[in-house]
Amino acid sequence: MTSIFVIKYPTITWNSTHFLDPKKEIKSLYSPINIQVISLDWKWLFIYPDYNIATINEIAFPQNVPIKFNITSNSVMNSFFIPQLGGQIYAMAGMNSILNLISNTTGKYKGISANFSGPGFSEMKFIAISLTDKNTFDAWIKNIQKSSKRIDNMRDYQNISTPSINHPIEYFSQD
Question: What are the recorded GO MF terms, alphabetically (predicted)?
Fold first, then answer.
């Protein structure tokens, strides 16, 4: 009986680990929404490359649509985490981490950094909004595309990446 126990549980662990791999794409009728995540000192920059927009400390997506996060850091290691959706993964400078999530219900969820990263760490929070449908998501996108704020060059990026604590939500557009 001992030999069965030893063989059985490593197999379960192996299978569960690969089944729950955060890089594994979520099968859906919908194409995933791509969001690039950059951990800054002490705020989050979210870039939606398919929509030519960016936000600080707020993301949105339609419910039941997969989200593919490409995550990195501008400086120190952080940890990207939306507890109600699951999946905590590290953001590291010079590295790219991938996390696939999906929200099956609408609502506003708290996102955090789950890794100590300096004096502003405890306030490094963001809002993740799961919207009812694609039309509501498109309206959110169109609202951000009206923003006059831009990130057009390295100087703009360096300005927003300046360390700040309790940074407000901001919207940027290239349209």
Answer: copper ion binding; cytochrome-c oxidase activity
Q: What is the pLDDT of residue 38?
A: 98
Q: 126 - beta bridge partners?
A: 111
Q: Could you read off the pLDDT of 117-150 as tens digits, one per residue?
A: 888 889 999 999 999 999 999 999 999 999 999 9
**Is the four-CA dihedral 70, 56, 164, 86 of positive or negative sign?**
negative
C-alpha to C-alpha distance for 100 and 102, rounded to whole angstroms: 7
* Strand segments (E) across the chain: 33-40, 43-48, 53-56, 58-62, 67-73, 78-81, 88-91, 97-101, 107-113, 125-131, 170-173
pLDDT value at 152 more than 90: yes
42: cis peptide before it, omega within 30°? yes
What's the one-letter identity of residue 9?
Y
d(CA 111, CA 57): 9
Q: Domain ranges for the chain, please list them.
A: 26-173
Average pLDDT, the chain: 89
- What CATH number does domain 26-173 carry, 2.40.10.10, 2.60.40.1510, 2.120.10.30, 2.60.40.420? 2.60.40.420
Classify the C-alpha dihedral 106-100-48-37 as positive or negative.
positive
